[in-house]
Amino acid sequence: MKDLLGLSEPSAAEIEEILALGLAIKKKLKEGGAVSPVLKGKSVVTLFYENSTRTRCSFELAAKKLGADVINIAASSSSVQKGESLVDTGKTLDAMRHSFVIIRHPMGGAPKLLASTVRAHVVNAGDGMNEHPTQALLDMLTMKEHLGKLAGLRVAILGDIRHSRVAKSNLYGLGKSGAEVRMFAPGTLMPAGLKEMGAKICSSREEAVEGADVVMGLRIQLERQKAGNFPSLGEYARFYGINEEVMKRAKPGALIMHPGPVNRGVELTCGLIDGETSRIEDQVLSGVAVRMAVLRLLAKEGTV
Ligand code: CP
Fold first, then answer.
1. Which residue stretches of 148-232 are H helix?
2. Residues 6+ apart with CB under 8 A from 302
3. Which of 98, 169, 224, 304 is deepest in the core (most CB within 10 A)?
4. Peptide bond into 261 cis (omega under 30)
């Protein structure tokens, strides 16, 4: 593969290869071991048209740990503000012979358009409501690390599924890896078509969480809410949020996950976010490892 645009395209074997390398890298990061600077002499551009903390920082750290030079471009302070198109921005970056462009964009399909016009490897860091492949990969890596497998797991995903690129990428990736994905959201936040993509659509949060190995909350994306999809954040938390009572339905010790950023007390109670079974902080380290794995494999430098 030249690019990583989503998890609808890679095979189960390709996803497994990324996760295996990511797990090996994460072990090394935890032990404080050195990683070979196999991307020395290459350069990585992060081109972000939307805000980010985790994804942009972890791609930068991943690239630097692999020895690459990193250039960060925020669209808000670039020539995009003077009217430059995405394709022309891509051609400009390509002329400088960058090896990778990591792009986040509010329009679904923007990374694919960029990838078709540049020589550099393009990695989708989140495109509108379409996909966020490295987020799903880091989620899957975290599950695999703590539960030992993906096949046969029951993963409950609850929250703003309609606007979520994370939900779609997880559905593709977990489905190809043999996990069962259950989803629940208020009707206004549940898009059509997910059942056809393999999800079990549940009619209550209790049904979604029943017997789950992993319970993942998704952020209420206030910036993408054009209409009143629920009365208030307080009512969302009360009637749709994940709390300790709902978690009694899950398997004992079920993992709590969230891609972040979290609206505390809305998608999840603070007790669950900070509790023993929460893996939300660990997901962040998984993000560095899996992004290192993606960069290495796209550059064809697969060993740790
Ligand atoms: N999960 C995620 O994409 O977080 P950021 O928006 O902070 O990158």
1. 165-176, 205-209
2. 17, 21, 296
3. 169
4. yes
At 2, the amino acid letter reads K
Of the candidates 260, 153, 252, 163, the one whose C-alpha atom is nearest the C-alpha of residue 217 is 260
130 lines ligand 1 (CB under 6 A): no
Q: Which atom of ligand 1 approaches the CA of 287 most closely? A: 1
Convert the pLDDT of each residue in 246-271 to its tens digit.
Answer: 999 999 999 999 999 999 999 999 99
What does the DSSP assignment read for 172-194?
Answer: HHHHHTT-EEEEE--GGG--TTT
Stated pTM of the model: 0.96
C-beta 260 within 6 A of ligand 1: yes
Only one residue has tokens 């660990």, namely 282
Task: Indicate the CATH number of 133-279 among 3.90.1640.30, 3.40.50.1820, 3.40.50.1370, 3.40.50.300.
Answer: 3.40.50.1370
Residue having the nearest C-alpha atom to atom 4 of ligand 1: 54
* Cα dihedral 8, 131, 268, 149 in deg (nearest 10): 30
